């Protein structure tokens, strides 16, 4: 079972605050922590912890953050042979987390701006040998399109996690086998304004018409909607013990979904497995510490049955 991941790496600089500051306001009493982040790296580590063989394509700087990234991938068993080392700084994300677990994130892309189609071309053999290709969108559009096209040409199943969401070029839509937006991202992909008035099922159908594949809309505590073929089905959530930090939940869900699909599970069952992973992740502070192992997910699934 092999997963290829094309996405971002960044250092996450996190502050837990009593409340998010308003414009011009200073809030004291925060607690600071730093750690590895970036959607692509998180998804790669998450898939490796669930037993997949994982190869990652991203870009980092020749700096302390970049060196820490390579140490993380070595420790977690993620192949980083094709990772690009740039003259620009490694991406940094500044994350504010409120007591409710909700978060606000600002990103300086740095080295990721240099991830291009040539880098993807050098990664083609990894994509071709994978069961599932996972692509996320904290990287230049050129790299997103090139990766999806390489997946389609290699007949590797493509999974696009469209975060952070932006309208997709027309060339992208037929290259996507599985699309996984959340409720906020779905209308952005369709170019809709805030007052669009569409429900989640209508959004899922509209997205499915564009891809011709499978659409999974994640809905946090309400579970997920799966549009596949002529059906839209609801996958219930797996209740979290407590909500501490939602920062890595989407990446954990994506990693587990990719692994379950690579194992040959039907989509609805794969989404259910991914929901358990997301539930585990929100109950633990930090992203990397919260990504579950297979044994942890098996224990959660067993306790719920």
Automatic annotation (TrEMBL):
<keyword id="KW-0479">Metal-binding</keyword>
<feature type="binding site">
    <location>
        <position position="245"/>
    </location>
    <ligand>
        <name>K(+)</name>
    </ligand>
</feature>
<dbReference type="InterPro" id="IPR002139">
    <property type="entry name" value="Ribo/fructo_kinase"/>
</dbReference>
<dbReference type="Pfam" id="PF00294">
    <property type="entry name" value="PfkB"/>
</dbReference>
<dbReference type="InterPro" id="IPR002173">
    <property type="entry name" value="Carboh/pur_kinase_PfkB_CS"/>
</dbReference>
<comment type="function">
    <text>Catalyzes the phosphorylation of ribose at O-5 in a reaction requiring ATP and magnesium. The resulting D-ribose-5-phosphate can then be used either for sythesis of nucleotides, histidine, and tryptophan, or as a component of the pentose phosphate pathway.</text>
</comment>
<comment type="pathway">
    <text>Carbohydrate metabolism; D-ribose degradation; D-ribose 5-phosphate from beta-D-ribopyranose: step 2/2.</text>
</comment>
<feature type="binding site">
    <location>
        <begin position="38"/>
        <end position="42"/>
    </location>
    <ligand>
        <name>substrate</name>
    </ligand>
</feature>
<feature type="domain" description="Carbohydrate kinase PfkB">
    <location>
        <begin position="3"/>
        <end position="293"/>
    </location>
</feature>
<keyword id="KW-0119">Carbohydrate metabolism</keyword>
<keyword id="KW-0067">ATP-binding</keyword>
<feature type="binding site">
    <location>
        <position position="281"/>
    </location>
    <ligand>
        <name>K(+)</name>
    </ligand>
</feature>
<dbReference type="InterPro" id="IPR011611">
    <property type="entry name" value="PfkB_dom"/>
</dbReference>
<feature type="binding site">
    <location>
        <position position="286"/>
    </location>
    <ligand>
        <name>K(+)</name>
    </ligand>
</feature>
<keyword id="KW-0963">Cytoplasm</keyword>
<keyword id="KW-0418">Kinase</keyword>
<dbReference type="InterPro" id="IPR029056">
    <property type="entry name" value="Ribokinase-like"/>
</dbReference>
<feature type="binding site">
    <location>
        <position position="284"/>
    </location>
    <ligand>
        <name>K(+)</name>
    </ligand>
</feature>
<comment type="similarity">
    <text>Belongs to the carbohydrate kinase pfkB family.</text>
</comment>
<protein>
    <recommendedName>
        <fullName>Ribokinase</fullName>
        <ecNumber>2.7.1.15</ecNumber>
    </recommendedName>
</protein>
<feature type="binding site">
    <location>
        <begin position="250"/>
        <end position="251"/>
    </location>
    <ligand>
        <name>ATP</name>
    </ligand>
</feature>
<feature type="binding site">
    <location>
        <begin position="218"/>
        <end position="223"/>
    </location>
    <ligand>
        <name>ATP</name>
    </ligand>
</feature>
<keyword id="KW-0547">Nucleotide-binding</keyword>
<dbReference type="InterPro" id="IPR011877">
    <property type="entry name" value="Ribokinase"/>
</dbReference>
<keyword id="KW-0808">Transferase</keyword>
<feature type="binding site">
    <location>
        <position position="251"/>
    </location>
    <ligand>
        <name>substrate</name>
    </ligand>
</feature>
<feature type="binding site">
    <location>
        <position position="247"/>
    </location>
    <ligand>
        <name>K(+)</name>
    </ligand>
</feature>
<comment type="subunit">
    <text>Homodimer.</text>
</comment>
<keyword id="KW-0630">Potassium</keyword>
<feature type="active site" description="Proton acceptor">
    <location>
        <position position="251"/>
    </location>
</feature>
<keyword id="KW-0460">Magnesium</keyword>
<feature type="binding site">
    <location>
        <position position="182"/>
    </location>
    <ligand>
        <name>ATP</name>
    </ligand>
</feature>
<feature type="binding site">
    <location>
        <position position="138"/>
    </location>
    <ligand>
        <name>substrate</name>
    </ligand>
</feature>
<comment type="similarity">
    <text>Belongs to the carbohydrate kinase PfkB family. Ribokinase subfamily.</text>
</comment>
